[in-house]
Amino acid sequence: MRRPSAHRSAADSSDEPYSIGAQLAAVALFVVLGVYFKNWLLNGYIGPLFVFFVLYLVPTGVRRLARIGRDR
Amino acid sequence: MSWAAHEFENYFIQKHVGVKASFLAIALGTWSPDLFTKSFVYASDDAAQFHRGWPGIGFTHSLMFGVVFAVLVLAVTRSRPWALGILIGQWAHVATDISDTAGVMPFFPFSIEPVTISMWKHAAAEGRFGDAAAYYSGLGGIWDLFWFVVVIGFCSQTLRVSYFRDMIVPADPRPWGWMHRTLRLPERALLLIYRGLLFYGLARMISWFLYARFEVKVPWQPTWGGPAYVPGNDLSDAGVLEVLIRTTIGGVLFAAFLWLCWRLFIQRLWLRAGSPQLAAT
Predict the structure, then answer these.
(1) How many CB atoms are located within 10 Å of the residue B39 CB?
(2) Which domain holds residue B216?
(3) What pTM, to 2 d.p., does this model score?
(4) Which residue from B264, B265, B261, B263 is spatially nearest to B253, judged by alpha carbons?
(5) What is the rounded CA–CA span in Å between residue B174 and residue A5?
(6) ipTM of the complex
(7) What is the pLDDT of residues A26-57, one digit of tens each?
(8) Which residues of A touch B186 (CB under 8 A)?
């Protein structure tokens, strides 16, 4: 069986990539924004991807922008 | 209907099926009864009847709907983990929705008698926000909390990186591999997509509970059949014995139909389809 390609890269060396604190902070943010935006956020299309946006996509984007800024 | 239990149940199911079923398929299966119909339910004049009854779209909450969906997926994808995941997920949704006052027709079309234990009110007639407030004012919120405790207390291993690596991806390597290769997402990003439903369920549960308590300030009445401030909406006035007889007849006919379909064509599709190991090669 070929190992699925969704696997290890150099960045994935640690077993748990996210601290409990970061995950709890994501939940707290989700709740606060959920109470404010209600069904705009707490629906089955956007909601399941919220933590992906907050813990991966946004930090990655910010890091890339910072790198671009430094390079200039 | 359940507002977060359907999300939490996925991890419980996954723990028990291992690589036999795809997690993404289980999630799609649990969503499938309400995926494209919820807006129409809230816009309907008789929300409970439209959502769970016949005439209406109550057939989406029947075991037959899960079978048809799973067989179609099996025929198109030739993937046993996907077909099994769809079937188990959809059946879990049907089983859970027995708990509200509208109930479900599990053996539709052989029985259109709603089966319910009336644990909490089906409150779609109150609109989307009113429905959420009512759900988190009755035993529905406790039901969600129960499933969250089950996942954290008894299925926490399903949330680990090693579980994702050894069970979730091997059960369904194509979509995870596609996301990794095409979208260039590393494992830590895929892990968040996998855990997303847990976060979503938890945030949904807390947010709507806070909304019910502090924004619309409806009374918290976690009693059987509550909350009392929402009018009743049972779809049938049949007695317990009548429901039992009709459902038993429906169940027997459904089982016979399923056996016949298995012999006629589902077995052939199943044998033609690949196991997770074959799919990965």
Answers:
(1) 10
(2) 5-280
(3) 0.91
(4) B261
(5) 9
(6) 0.90
(7) 999 999 999 999 988 998 889 999 999 999 99
(8) 9, 11-12
